[in-house]
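I'm stuck. Please check this protein.
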Amino acid sequence: MSTDTNDDTTTNDSDSCNVPDSDGEVAEEIAIVAFERKIETAEEIVAGIGDRYESIEILEYHGDVFEANWGEYDCFVGLMASGIAMRKTAHLLDDKWDDPAIVVVDEDLTWAIPITGGHHGANQVAGDLAELGAVPATTTASEAAGKQGVESKAKALDTHVVNGDSTVATNLAVLNEELGPVARLDGPRAVLVGDDVTVLKRNKEEGVVLGTGTVSGVDAEQVLDAWEAALQALGLTFADVDFAASGTRKDGEEGLYEAAQDADIGLVFFEKETLEEYEGPSSSRSKELIGWPGIAEASAIAGGREHDLEREKERFDDAVTVAVGR
């Protein structure tokens, strides 16, 4: 996705970016509902992916189990037929921004099917279950079309959606490739918007951006080591990171995506025009050779709230260059 005003970006959500927010777009508290004969499978799920969540519990199925625990969890994983889950929860559903997400999975962990709340944790949990061999049967329109919905963009940027009703219009625009630029406005200022404008708000008051340049074919481990070294030099950890950023010419680097997923942070790619606007102070050979400004510093500055550098670029392992923006 390209954006203008202050930022031109392509956002990419790491598969299980568990960042707390006020609208439930991320599932952190999970309940696995299982019949007694399927408790062993439930325990397998806990052992396999339980460390991805703030909490994960197993509830033995009974007729009122969903109703008795409604509102206590971000997501229910039903080890049962989808029809059972649908019949037992249909009367409880009220608003997608408040209702828990529901995913059903079969005993053999073949399919993981988001039933409700796809953009509000169900797709995320179904994706996590893929680590155990289940195929995520994702049916939300944007993801089914291979596009990134507004809620997914919010997670990648470590933000949450303020006005949920707007996403009907903006996700339709995503499908039609008509959404246009996502504009970041730094305040204080007053903004007047319509019902078809989705407002994203950052989850943390403060955070840094990991501006990153890489050689082609970089390994995820090399990227992670470089990020950790840059953060340690500032006394920071991944918990202090808003997102990692690079240039769109690095959009195909699998090592970057894998590193972002392992670090549980979002990944943003800036267009060349934006990087030129926020060019860093250090000299760069890429500008001489291919006309691009130094990606690490420019993307760190472009992504930072203050559009400034916390730490100038440093090259690690002759493969990864990292600058830290604020």
